[in-house]
Predict the 3D structure of the following.
Amino acid sequence: MTADVFIFWFLAILTIVSALSVVLMTNPIYSALSLAMTMVSVAAIFVTLQAYFLAGVQLIVYAGAVMVLFVMVLMLFDLKNELQAFSRGKFTGAIKVGAVGILAGLIVGAVGSFIMAGKSGAPVTPEASTSADATKALSEHLFFNHVFGFEALGVLLLVIAVGTVALSRSKGGTHAKH
Amino acid sequence: MTSMGSTSFEITINLIKLVLVFLMMVQAVPILVWLERRGSAFIQNRFGPNRVGPLGLLQLLADAVKFLTKEDFAPEKGNRFMFYAAPVFALIPAAIAYMAVPMSVPLKLDGHTFLIQGFEINVGIVFILGISSLAAYTILMAGWGSGSKFSLMGAMRASAQIISYELALGLSIVGVILLYGTFNLTEMVNMQQGPLTFSMFGYTVTSSYLPNWGIFYQPVGMILFFAATFAESNRLPFDLAEGEAELVAGFHTEYGGFKMLMFFIGEYGHMMIASGLMTTFFFGGYGIPGISFQEMHQIGLNLLGTETLASIFNTVVHFLSYNLKFAIFLWIFIHVRWTLPRFRYDQLMDLGWKTMLPWALANTMLTAVVIFAASYFTI
Amino acid sequence: MPLGGVIFITVFIAIFGYILIRLARLTGGQAKKTSQAKFDIYECGIPVQEKKDTKISVKFYLTAILFILFDIEIIFMYPWAVNFRNFIASGAGLFVFTSMFIFLAIFIFGLWWEIKSKALEWD
């Protein structure tokens, strides 16, 4: 039990530190790599909750696909000049105020929900389940309760693919050919 | 750490085992390098390293000493942190993914059961895919940290290639999952025991001499999977990332000495994962055709007398069986490298997206239809 | 899942790699700056061009995005595939089979469109 508690605190601190370094790092590539680290540690936290399949999906999709895209694109464009984009310029004040507002709202919401949960009683502990059961329950939810959402997702992904191809075709902007 | 063992003795043994599997993986690399150099020489009608020690085996040691005496170099224009972190990170995904592959039947000693694998994971395939998809970061970090244009171009190509073939890889496994109905690698190995048995439309056909291996159910899946793992581990004919004629050495142009060696260990680690998975998915894992685990245990019991010795015998025999199959696939990796020429980049992408992806889709659909039809008509 | 073991071996390998690099520096020594050219990045022997406006094809970006989309679709097949026999045994086989084949039809249409629109052509 103590080992489990130790692992939880280790992962929690790792997640928070890497998430903080996403916003505190000035180099966008370090930020993106920190975000990838955050994704990996969130996957590990899923494992402590016995959501094994979701942990795998978190690794494959977020850490292995989405963040690789981010890092690739950031390395493609050398962002030395854009570093200052958000710290100087016309709209910086508004952006700063907005960001502080959102962060304050998040903190108030988190603390509030924590207090509310404390009032309602002991935290709910998940029942111990095997991975086969958990994956089966997940697929039953997905293919019975949310089957229309699932099909709609297929259409949505298709639309995104078409949109991406169309955007990469456009000859305007910085990619204009002479 | 609950699932690492119930007593502190088991936990200690299991942690030592993890370190041992890792060191085994690292130690296998020099041997594979020797095999590759001798093998390539054999294929190209040369001698290869044959002067240092018997059959040139001590060449490995000489190489290690040479690596140790190389001075430590980092380019001035690059990013030092990334440059040094990339080779260290190259080891991690390969080693952790390899540890999830089962290598033999569990060893039973004094009421303790020890698995012959780093850790048993219920969602084995998903875990291995997820961990090995992190390998793209290593390449990108190395390419960007070097600050060289060759490195960056090589890293871009390598990562685009890896993610393209990850699709075919992931999709070719869907057929395997459909076949076995589990993500767990040990359960897959257990299902491949016994003689080959097809049952369809109420009839059952049993072969007297063929084992019940996955390859007979998923031949197309096997070919697609094996081809995709070549691309994943950046081996020829898919080593566009380090095409010497265009990119010098790709993402590790600026590396030398031990840092270079660590990238090597990562690459060979991916080869080992691929060979281990091929064995597990399609060739019966550590099983031996014709003899079940219990029968082998019984043979051990008759030969050696005690239950403990029989268990050790059983484990060792199946470990050897696994390693034999494993070595065959590693040799195929080496043989293909010295037989086929390199693709052109557009051919590579065409193969991944326009050939392998549709075939993998067709394989998945066919498997689903057959499984559905088989169960539908028997009921 | 033995999470403790995974974390342990990750930390172990990181320390192992760090020590290996340190050790190699100890035995081989830090690189001595005998000339500027030695510390420059390798560019086929010609002096390094300072200008860093490496133009890289937008195709890499497109490939990565299409990869993410198809990867998500493939991930949805995993829970379906692993429970397909259970679904058939419980009598829901036809429903689940049909719903996945509709999804696959959309997938195949997407792939066919990508190939037809030459989005996957590299020149």
